[in-house]
Each structure stands twice: as structure tokens, then as C-alpha cells.
Amino acid sequence: MRELVLLGGPNFSGRSDxxxxxLCDERTAGPVVxxxxxxASALTGLAPTVGAELDLYRTRGVPAPPEELTAFLDPRxxxxxxxxxxxxQVLLALVATGRPDARAVAVDCALExxxxxxxxxxLAYLRSAAGGxxxxxxxxxxxxxxxxxxxxxxxxxxxxSFRMDPEAAPLASLGAIPPVRLTVDDLxxxxxxxxxxxxxxxxxxxxxxVYRLRGANGAGKSTLIRLLCGVLPIRRGHVSIDxxxxxxxAEGNRVIALSMQNPDDQWSDIGLxxxxxxxxxxLHSSTGDVSSRLEPLLSSWGGVFGVRDxxxxxxxxxxxxxxxxxxxxxxxxxxxxxxxxxxxxxxxxDATVTRLTSLLGHYVALGYGVLYVSHDRRLSRGLPATDLLxxxxxxxxxx
Amino acid sequence: xxxxGLVLFLVIAVASLFVPSRSVVPILVLALGSAFTLALGRRxxxxxxxxxxxxAPLAIFLTLVWVVIVGRxxxxxxxxxxxxxxxxxxxxxxxxxxxxxALLTFGVIEAGSRIRxxxxxxxxxxxxxxxxxxxTTSLVGAMRLGAERAHTALVSANILTGRRSWRNLxxxxxxxxxxxxxxxxIAVERLDTKWKCEDLxxxxxxxxxxxxxxxxxxxxxxxxxxxxxxxxxxALLR
Lengths: 399, 238
What we know:
- The structure holds two protein chains of two kinds.
- Chain A is α/β, with parallel strands linked by helices.
- Chain A is 32% helix and 20% strand.
- In chain A, the strands form three sheets. A six-stranded mixed beta sheet of chain A has the order 11-12-13-8-14-15, sandwiched between helices.
- By secondary structure, chain B is an all-alpha fold.
- Helices cover 79% and strands 0% of the residues of chain B.
- In chain B, helix 1 runs parallel beside helix 12 and helix 2 (25-40) packs antiparallel against helix 12.
- The longest helix of chain B is centred in the middle third of the chain and has 30 residues, at 127-156.
């Protein structure tokens, strides 16, 4: 049995730095495995397909994946690793932790992307895999589950930097937004040369309500959001807003302000000011003067997230957990009627989740619609929502 | 084919394309092209189609210029050759060479990228060179991922549209810039996390078996390419 050690502490207490430094030290005595929360930090980057990634693990002494993962990975053997969803990538990366000669395994907030069943399985697998490796985890949802880990290693690094201050949010300046009802009718979708993701889905989203998109890893939750935002084409089925046909792929997205699962997928510029400026310019191209709108917006939200004096810094200069928070600014700026969040609380501590849910409550009261994808129970506790279940190519629940 | 065989096949086949003898080119193209397409198996058809699409615009252009407008072969015009030369045959020779070049290049990239780590580590090169090559080829993945990210960011922000549009043409530079920034970000994050902690790709290189020589299949394919090269040279000397 391996020992599972949970790193205790809020965001910016030095957990990620600790994991990296620990592994670099342990590496001198034996093989180590690191799984981070993104494609770049979870997978090797050396293999283009799932099969090639598994081959690479095998050459490094990793045994064949356990039965549960084989059933999951086999159909995806020839797929590109980047075509997997965030949770699926974590499951693939977990195979590498089975290496019996591993000396140390570090998992940095990666398990937060897994649904409850896989998460429970992953924790059991980390503990029961062969060898005597010590496993250290940074995970914001694990602390109450005392049976899942052996001990807590408290982190005492600097806290309080980039503290989120929702009081500074410019909620008073949010205008009343015309309510927009989104209707999806008979939607079917399949990736090129891929499996069918949706078949004949129909549902309706009403303004002034909160919806939670639920479903197992790889069920198609993020794909559905990409379809609604026009990133992917809707070849069969229709979307309408208040009864009028809406074709986001052809016409462009003018309803949804999206905060993506991986914040780094979202930036259209190297700095926050450039990114927001570009979005606003596109939105207000007919009404001119974007800079007069941009500066107050940046200043207010910069204050909320503790970066007022670094608004033009390179985004990669900020820690990942802060980049995730900064990715909320676009929906929270209130420029579009639907606020959509893909795994918004990934890597966020309890205090930040509470602040986000209280902020979103204000938007709902003003008539904005909120749709989020999350496996995080803290979020559903703080922001009660109508469930939409994505399962077997269908979306059920809702109104 | 092994990676060494594939690279050797490519070198010989490309060399045979540069032998300036027009009469054997169609046979060469037919022999090497079909052999290579077969060697790639199912992906061969995709690669052949891609090569055909990339050469087709040039073939149309050359046909228009030399067959429809000029009406004579380029060598008659430029080199005042006294040999009777059909412009059709000339254009066919030029485009078939280009087609084979495209087919071979795409084919090797395709074969290599599907099996990237074993392909690079199978090459008969010093260990350090293979590590550098592996790290370098991993940037292809970073660029692809970067392009996906950039496209998603710009389309979801309504700066570009998912479908072809004039707006996309006007803002295409933005996609290129965002892709570049995203790819650099991915590479930096990878270096700072996974690669740094696990000492990849050094650890991967240490775990793989040493490079091997040519196998039986390699010998067959490279011999075929060698025969084509000899045929082209013999036709030139005749």
C-alpha cells in the first residue's frame, strides 16, 4: 500500500512549488511521476496518440493499465491525445503512476477534473498500485474526505497574495440585460472520423436561471458548449434565441460569454488588457470608443482579483490558479446575456468558490443566465442549479 | 518499415527524382508512388490524396501556360531543343516529379508522426542527437495544440468565425500570432512541470532499446528505390 499525503493549505500557499521541488529531489534516488492539471503538465508531449503514449509508458517499465482503464482506453487507442477531454487525459496519465519502481508520485489538482466515480477509483488506484511510492496530492476538494488519504502535510507558504475581493466588483454598473431564451432542437453531432457525441438532443435554457451540465468524463459536456459558442459546426439540428434561428458557427457567437476549462485555451492576446480589449472591440465595433469602456472595466476587475497594478503583464507570468480566475472576467463583465463556465472552480480553494458563487447570484438576480460544467460539489452547494445530464448522446433534465 | 529504412528510402527516391531524364519519370513515379502508398497501408490513400491536392493547382497552372497559351514544351522554348517534345508530356513529367516528392514527404511525416518516439529512437544516430530530435519533434504537437487553442479562443470570442469568412481572412494574422503565443506557452509549461520533474525526454531515451539496422522490409523497399535511381541514371547516359 502506498501512502497518500494531502497537501493542506489554500491557494498560493506553495503547494505546486512544493510538489515540483519534492519530485526534483526524489528523482536522484529513483523514477518519479508528475500529473498536472493541463495537457502540457499531465501527458509527456512526446507521443501523438493514446497508443503511442501508452507505448512510451511501457518502455519505461509501467505495467499494462488496470482492467477499468483498459476498457476506457482501448476504443481511444488511435485517437490523438489532444482530442481527449481534460478528465480523460488525467485518466490516461494515471496509467503511468502504476510503475512499481516509482519512488514518488505527485498529482497537482488533476483529480478535480474527474467525475465522482472515476475520482474514487483514481484515489483507490493511487493507493493500491504496486511499489512503495509516496503519493502527494494537491486537491481542493479532498480535505473533508478523511478516509481517502493517510495524512495532511500543512503548507505554510505565503498566503493572501492575489486574494479575491468580490466587494470591488462593479455590480452597480451592470445594466439590465434583455432576457435571452436559448433553445436547442434535435441536435446531433459527430467529430470527423470520431464517435457520435450527440443524437437528437433537445432542451431549453431560460434566462435568470442557473443550469449545471452533468455527465461522466468524456460524455460531451465541453463539446456541447463549443457547439453553442460556434467553435464546432452544428450539422444536424437547430439552435434558436427567443424563437429566432441562431447559427453561431456561421454568424459568430453573440450570446455566450465563455470561461473555458483550461484558462490558457481562452486568451486571444498575451495580456489581460489586450484580450479584453479585442473582445470589446469586436462586440462594440459599431458603437466605437472601446477604450473608454475598457479602462474602468479593467481597473475594477483587476481590483477584484488583486492584479490592478499588473493589468498589462504577460498572462503566463501569473500562477495557473490566478489565470483560471482571470478567465472569469470576460463572462463577469456582463457584456453578453449567457455566462458559461467550464469547470470554473478547478484548482480553487473553498474561500474563492464561495466568493464566486455569491458573485454569480447577483447576475442571476439581474436576469443573466448561467450554465456551468463542474464535478465540484462545493459549487452546486453554493449555487443551486437545474441539472442537465449528458449521457449516451442525449441531454436530459432541465425544463 | 523501420525509421532507418524509411529515411533511406526517402533519400534514394528523392535523388532519383532529380536525375534529369524525362523518359523514365512516369514509370519511376508509378513504381515508387504505388509502392510507397502500399507500404503506408491504410493511411497511404489519405497521403496520396493530400499529395494530389497539393500538386493539383500547379498542374492546372502549368497546363494552362505551356499547353493552352504557349503550345510548346518549356525545353523547346528555353533551351531551343531540336527534339520534338510534346507540351503535355513535359507538363506531366514536371508535375509527376512534384507529386512523388509531395507523396514521399507527406508519407514520411505521416509514418513518423504516428509513431513519433519509436521512430526517432529507432534512427541510427548518436543518443544525444536522438534526444534533441525527439524534443524538437514534440514541438509539432505543441504547435498543433496551440493552433487548436488559438482557434477556440478567437472563435468563442467572435473575433473569427468557425466557417470560412472574409472576417477570418482579415484577422488571419491574429490566428497565426495567437497560435505562436499558445505554442510557446505550452512548451514553457511542459518544460517547467512534467519534463522538469520527470527529466523527460532523457528518461524516455534511457528506457528505449538501442537503434537497430535495416530489416528485411527496409531492404526490399530501398532496393526498389535504388533500382529506380539506377534506371533513371542509365536512361540519362544512354
